[in-house]
Design brief:
Layout: H1 15-30, H2 35-38, H3 47-55, H4 74-86, H5 92-108, H6 111-122, E1 128-131, E2 147-150, E3 155-162, E4 172-178, H7 198-201, E5 215-221, E6 227-233, E7 239-251, E8 256-257, H8 263-275, H9 285-296, H10 304-332, H11 338-364, H12 374-385, H13 396-406
Parallel strand pairs: 1-4
Antiparallel strand pairs: 2-3, 3-7, 4-5, 5-8, 6-7
The structure holds flavin-adenine dinucleotide.
Flavin-adenine dinucleotide binds near residues 165, 391, 395 and 398.
Length: about 400
């Protein structure tokens, strides 16, 4: 059986000072933000806040200076991210570009593409969205049917994406598009793990290797004629994801990212970046903070159930943090810890998804929950939003299939 590695990492010198700097900035900026807004953190689109981070060099902070980056280490970036998320900062506007679109451009982009997009991302002037999922292509991403046809003037793209986070505000989408005939090929043997996981990752019939061919990534500016964005309100009425329709959208030849037909491999290489960060276990952190506040309130009594919940949560959080940090360290060392990243996401999502239900159980057992208290508001919000934690970025079942395959168990 193969195994996995979560070697401990050593934080670089100066980390504590940097952490203190970020905390001081966040104290000034977020002083009066209501608790339920803090509970949404990386879902909240706030371009003004992103630009404030940009002015400090905190977007694209690991990228080369010639593209607007600050050439700081991946572990310093990790410190920044965990402080932003722990404080519930509204980081949704630049999150996708900073986490994966920028690195994809650095890896696969032409010099002209890098110069066009990276400095604008680092300045908080260009926001990205991810155009992978379609109505019949979520876990089974190889079923993508949005089609690109090469013409003399550029690529004509027609089709539909769905669940596209912040498509209504983003400037550019990296879209996965079918440009070859792979989808028409009859399924046969098992194929490589899918970016979102995919039926093929689980070895389900339907995942032939050819289906992963003929896919290409494009940089599509969202103001191009022929694009229609239709918001989808979520359970609590927030609008952050969308349907996106493409009707013969003309995309210039020089907006093809990487190589024609290599879209699958390129998406796959983003996996570990998308799955292993602190956003995969801190989505319920605002609730954890409110629970601590309730436990520490003057005159408040802490039940045994509450003590157990807090003690377990601290132990789990600490473990997840060490694992996630380890993946960040491996990425910084140039490795691709795909299995470890999937493990972090699966365990992290399980933790952040369970916390609201565990808190509710404690509340039922006697924690005083006044209707308008921050704790009650955050709990109500997270009970409704937490089901999505194990869907976005690849579902639980799919991740477990990838982990099993990575360990040689299937
Ligand atoms: C908040 C949020 C934001 C998102 N943002 C984006 C975005 O910006 N861009 C984007 O492209 N996508 C985005 N998505 C889409 C997300 O990637 C998909 O929802 C996810 O990959 C699952 O696909 P699906 O919704 O089609 O569900 P399905 O693939 O239909 O899955 C439904 C259920 O069946 C299970 N299942 C599927 N196949 C198998 C199998 N072979 N074996 C066992 N179980 C299986 C799944 O685990 C799941 O429980 C977002 C989703 C959410 C919830």
């Amino acid at each position: 059986m193969q195994t996995f590695a979560f070697d401990p990492v050593e934080m670089p010198e100066g980390t504590s000072e940097f952490r203190a700097e970020v905390r001081a900035f966040l104290r000034d900026e977020l002083g009066s933000a209501p608790a339920e807004r803090r509970a949404n953190s990386w879902s909240v689109f706030d371009a003004t806040f992103s630009r404030k981070l940009a002015r400090r060099g905190w977007i694209g902070m690991t990228w080369p200076k010639r593209y607007g980056g600050s050439e700081r280490s991946a572990l310093e970036r990790y410190v920044l991210l965990e402080e932003l998320l722990a404080a519930g900062a509204p980081v949704g506007a630049h999150w996708i570009a900073d986490r994966q679109s920028g690195p994809a451009l650095l890896r696969y982009g032409t010099e002209a593409q890098r110069e066009r997009y990276l400095p604008a991302i680092a300045q908080g002037e260009c926001f990205f969205c991810i155009g992978m999922s379609e109505p019949n292509a979520g876990s089974d991403l190889a079923s993508v049917r949005t089609r690109g046809v090469k013409t003399g003037e550029g690529w004509r793209i027609t089709g539909q994406k769905v669940w596209t986070t912040h498509a209504q505000q983003a400037h550019t989408m990296i879209a996965l598009v079918r440009t070859g005939d792979g989808n028409d090929v009859a399924p046969e043997a098992p194929a490589a793990p899918a970016p979102r996981g995919g039926a093929s990752a689980l070895g389900r019939p339907g995942g032939g290797p050819k289906r992963h061919e003929g896919l290409t990534q494009f940089l599509i500016d969202m103001n191009t004629p022929g694009i229609t964005v239709r918001p989808i309100p979520d359970l609590v009425g927030d609008v952050h994801f969308n349907e996106v329709f493409f009707d013969e959208v003309l995309v210039p030849h020089d907006r093809l990212l990487g190589q024609e037909g290599q879209g699958w491999q390129q998406c796959t290489s983003e996996l570990s970046l998308e799955r292993s960060g602190p956003e995969r276990y801190l989505s319920s952190h605002a609730l954890f903070v409110e629970l601590l506040r309730a436990a520490a309130a003057p005159g408040g009594r802490t039940s045994e159930a509450m003590q157990q919940l807090l003690g377990c949560a601290v132990a789990e959080l600490w473990t997840l943090r060490q694992m996630s940090l380890s993946v960040a360290g491996q990425l910084a060392a140039g490795r691709d810890p795909a299995v470890e990243a999937a493990i972090v996401k699966d365990l992290g999502n399980s933790f952040e998804q369970a916390l609201p239900r565990r808190a509710q159980a404690v509340a039922d057992a006697g924690l005083a929950l006044e209707d308008d208290a921050p704790l009650a508001r955050v709990l109500a919000l997270l009970l409704q939003t937490s089901p999505s934690f194990s869907l976005r970025g690849g579902t639980r079942e799919i991740l477990r299939g990838i982990i099993a395959r990575g360990l040689g168990l299937r």
